[in-house]
Amino acid sequence: MTRLKLKKLEEYLQCVDGFEKPKILLEQYPTPPHIAACMTHCMQEQHGDIEGKLVADLGCGCGMLSIGATLLGAQLTVGFELDDAAVDIYRQNVLDMELPNVDCIRANVLQLPCSKWDNAFDTVVMNPPFGTKHNAGMDMRFLDVGMRLATGAVYSLHKTSTRREKCECYQCHQLQTVQDQIEVLMVDPNHSRRSEIAVNHLL
């Protein structure tokens, strides 16, 4: 498959519709196209973790990261999202962009059955709730689920201020600083990646 350049990927992602009425308590802050493009493009170009892979998107919202992974050649992308309205927008985005091999499952990420989903995906990607709305630690709980689902790497957006906590629990690597106080972390359940990963400061 033809590799998308970063700029072209971002152009496609600018066509993805976002939340009509974001639910603040669910921390439904959209992932900007620039951040989604940089994150997914890095996952593929630096680590080969998208093309031909089974990819899960936890707390997928309207599908920005799922669609990015699909455009970069994922074999199958499955989003998991609790909110009905977000699921509807996700599915409409997929239809509008005529994308194959991508779907969204309405589910509570924290209650996914182990017997069905554990080790079911090569790669997991997420922009989890940061835990700022009386739900402290929610991002760590999402990361725990991602570690269960993935046989390969887990990529997650997090506040820079909480990196130490994540890295004390997991062998994680900072891949990119994509915005002030926001960065992409990669966690490798197999601890097989080298820790000397280049950091690309994008903004």
From TrEMBL:
CDD domains to which the protein is assigned, alphabetical = AdoMet_MTases (cd02440)
Molecular function (GO) terms for this protein are:
nucleic acid binding; rRNA (adenine-N6-)-methyltransferase activity
The UniProt record lists the Methyltransferase small domain at: 43-137
Pfam families given in the database record: MTS (PF05175)
Q: Which InterPro entries match?
A: DNA_methylase_N6_adenine_CS, rRNA_MeTrfase/Polyamine_Synth, SAM-dependent_MTases_sf, Small_mtfrase_dom
Tell me which family the UniProt entry assigns to this protein: Belongs to the methyltransferase superfamily. PrmA family.
| Name of the molecule in the record | Methyltransferase-like protein 5
Organism of origin: Drosophila hydei (Fruit fly)
**Upper classification of the organism:** Eukaryota, Metazoa, Ecdysozoa, Arthropoda, Hexapoda
Q: Which gene encodes it?
A: LOC111604533
